[in-house]
Specification:
With 663 residues, the protein is an alpha+beta fold. It folds into 4 domains: 10-185 and 218-268, no CATH class; 364-466, no CATH class; 471-572; 576-660, no CATH class. The protein contains 24 helices and 15 strands. It has helices at 10-34, 36-41, 62-80, 87-94, 100-130, 141-168, 172-200, 206-213, 220-225, 234-257, 273-295, 299-322, 330-348, 378-387, 393-412, 448-459, 462-469, 505-520, 524-528, 557-566, 569-572, 589-595, 601-610, 619-628, and strands spanning 51-52, 137-138, 367-373, 424-433, 438-447, 478-485, 488-489, 492-493, 499-502, 535-541, 548-552, 579-586, 614-615, 638-645, 651-657. Strand 10 and strand 11 form a beta hairpin. 32% of the residues are buried.
Length: 663
């Protein structure tokens, strides 16, 4: 006699295996062709070393494996429980002399057998292949076990999640679509909310939030599409195993509650309808709003996108739920108004200052250390601050003053229109707090005149200079210093600039001390000087392969005198003797604002078609031009210059502000 406490029915399982066995067979063959056969077909060259595999996803035939994991577990979850989507089949299955929980567990076990057995068989074959003496590949047992565990965890999760979605829907096509949409949803929502906050939440830090959250890891489908399963660690395995248990339990209880009349309905349980309507509308509004905002950065079109998204999302949901395109009614209009208001609040409330996000500036006592980036180099800002910076109260207070000003600046709005371009900068601020958390803010395109009063004292603090210039490196032993002249040729830095190399230990030590003094003595005006530097300085620390770059700025008079005395200046700097056939042409600021970004031959030809170039031969003027060559800012008034390097065919282009040259 069979025990009634046995949870599975062998008859149901055998029937499922006969009816849907093709899923397991194809999965087995797909995995076999994707990895073991690929390894065996690769011939080992007599002279070539064996290839070492660190993982069996990206190093093996990973793209095909990922496709298999995306397709077959979902197919098993759809086909094995497909009887639920047809009232006749559902009535027949539920008329069997089996309790619902036993029937569900039997079907669930059938799918697990179809999916797990092919993986285990392939793992055994891989173990045999690994021991083959003439195999072209080498991999450790740990790599094989990790591949097995990752594939098992993801396959089981995809299958059980598909079953769970099937319990909530009444149509197989909709079930398939919803499975992939929901698997993409965590990453997609993260990106959409990030865009929404970036657009409307003042101070939202894109870099820190996006990198700390790493939205792609929140979606197994994105991980499969990006082929980064080699990063699938034990924590991910625990999370997906836990989610499989949660979704499995939820599917079990929903199956017991599901009515056979739910077949062919879009949503099997009516109390899910409000969540379905609201979720689709919010997503549709965010997608449409982001699309129109990026296509045309105009508030009117952005609002049009939100409204269009709400209408399309609501109409699509209603047509699915009612299974008809005739959805217009007074009741539908009232429902649309209510859901639109709710979705608008969901989008609006998080970007207000209700939580104090916009105006929050931590107290000095709360801050362990802090840093700021003014040039958008956020990665190096976070990296250097974690490793190099120490608590500097003067630096902390200077950044807090700047932060307070930025908060107030938002209320004042941008500067009024100016006939000359207003310089803007991107400000990124990060505080490492005593409680271990990080408070990060990002302020793009801030007009410099609005915050100049706070920028000046902050940029002149020693803490700022240490964080930005990595001054600790200049206290270490250095093996070599390489200098390369900084000037443009054909729209980019010259490929063969004037260079010099310092290798003498005594000269290197003197150079380190002088450069460090120059950097520590830099004023705000030195920082913001738009003149192109004389040279880039590449420093190679002893025992390291990576070089650190500094700039030999034109304001470094002590360094300039030392370089001249040692004979390095003429090897690196542009001097009148290097220049021939110099011409200057007055630029049109209006035309240049839309066209010009870097000096180039094409741009010079355009400018000469508008204005007549003026040849310059006076040595003092040439020397002044070389001294004042600057980085161009869009719409700035000035002259574009062109000259040849003496003794070469190299042509150099540059920009001189109008107030620094009168040909």
């Amino acid at each position: 006699m069979k025990s009634n406490r046995f949870f599975f029915n062998s008859g149901v399982i055998r029937q499922d295996l006969r009816q849907h066995g093709w899923i397991g067979i194809l999965y087995l063959l797909g995995l076999l062709f994707s990895l073991p056969l690929q390894m065996m077909m690769t011939e080992l060259s007599p002279r070539a070393p064996r290839m070492v595999l660190q993982n069996l996803f990206s190093d093996g035939n990973g793209d095909f494996q990922n496709l298999l994991v995306m397709v077959f577990p979902v197919a098993a979850g759809i086909f094995i429980f497909r009887y639920l989507q047809s009232k006749g089949s559902a009535d027949f299955q539920h008329s069997l002399p089996l309790r619902r929980d036993r029937l569900f567990l039997s079907h669930l076990a059938s799918g697990l057998i179809l999916l797990v057995v092919p993986i285990l068989v392939n793992a055994c074959i891989l173990a045999i292949v690994k021991m083959m003496p003439d195999l072209a590949y080498v991999f450790r047992w740990y790599v094989l076990f990790k591949w097995l565990a990752t594939l098992l965890v993801l396959t089981v999760f995809m299958y059980i999640f598909t079953v769970f979605v099937g319990m909530c829907t009444g149509q197989s096509i909709l079930q398939t679509a919803v499975v992939f949409i929901l698997l993409l949803l965590p990453a997609a929502l993260g990106e959409l909310w990030g865009f929404h906050f970036r657009t409307y939440l003042y101070g939202y830090s894109t870099y820190y939030v996006d990198n700390s959250m790493n939205w792609s890891n929140w979606s197994p489908l994105v991980q499969l599409l990006e082929q980064n399963l080699e990063q699938f660690d034990r924590y991910s395995a625990f999370i997906y195993t836990g989610l499989s248990c949660v979704f499995g339990a939820a599917a079990f209880f929903l199956y017991r509650l599901r009515k056979t009349e739910a077949a062919t309905q879009a949503i099997a349980f009516s109390y899910f309808n409000p969540l379905f309507r609201g979720g689709v509308m919010v997503c549709a509004m965010m997608v449409a709003g982001a699309y129109f905002h990026q296509s045309n950065n105009n508030p009117g079109w952005t609002w049009f996108g939100y409204i269009a998204g709400a209408v399309i999302g609501f109409a699509g949901v209603e047509m699915l739920l009612q299974k008809s395109w005739q959805i217009y009614s007074r009741k539908a209009l009232i429902r649309f108004g209510g859901y639109t208001l709710l979705c608008a609040l969901i989008l609006y409330v998080p970007v207000t200052n209700i939580s104090g996000y916009v105006t929050r500036v931590p107290d000095t006592a709360q801050v362990e250390k802090t840093t700021v980036s003014l040039e958008g180099q956020v990665y190096s800002m976070f990296r250097n601050s974690r490793t190099n910076s120490q608590r500097d109260e003067a630096y902390i207070n200077a950044i807090r003053d700047l932060h307070k000003k930025l908060v107030v600046t938002r209320a004042k709005g941008p500067l009024p229109h100016s006939p000359t371009p207003i310089r803007t900068i991107n400000v990124n601020i990060a505080y490492w707090l005593e409680d271990g958390s990080v408070l990060s803010r990002e302020y793009p395109a801030i007009p410099v005149p609005l915050i100049e009063e706070q920028l000046k004292p902050m940029m002149e603090t020693e803490g700022y200079k240490k964080a930005v210039f990595d001054l600790n490196l200049l206290d270490q032993r250095i093996d070599r210093i390489t200098l390369e002249g900084a000037y443009y040729a054909e729209g980019r830095y010259a490929e063969n600039p004037k260079t010099a190399v310092i290798t003498d230990p005594q000269e290197i030590k003197e150079f380190q001390e002088i450069l460090k003094r120059e950097l520590l003595n830099m004023t705000y005006e030195d920082h913001t000087d738009g003149r192109l530097e004389w040279a880039t300085v590449s420093v190679l620390p002893s025992g390291k392969n990576d070089q650190t770059r500094y700039l030999w700025k034109k304001s470094f008079k002590e360094l300039d005198a030392w370089m001249t005395a040692k004979g390095y200046a003429t090897k690196v700097k542009l001097i009148p003797a290097n220049v021939t056939d110099l011409e200057a042409v007055l630029m049109d600021p209006v035309l240049s604002a839309d066209r010009y970004s870097f000096p180039s031959e094409q741009e010079y030809r355009f400018q000469t078609s508008v204005s007549t170039p003026v040849p310059i031969t006076d040595k003092q003027k040439i020397e002044s031009i070389l001294e004042n060559m600057s980085i161009y800012e869009s719409g700035a008034a000035g002259y574009m210059i062109k000259f040849k390097m003496t003794g070469t065919n190299q042509v150099v282009y540059g920009f001189i502000p109008e107030d620094r040259l009168v040909p």
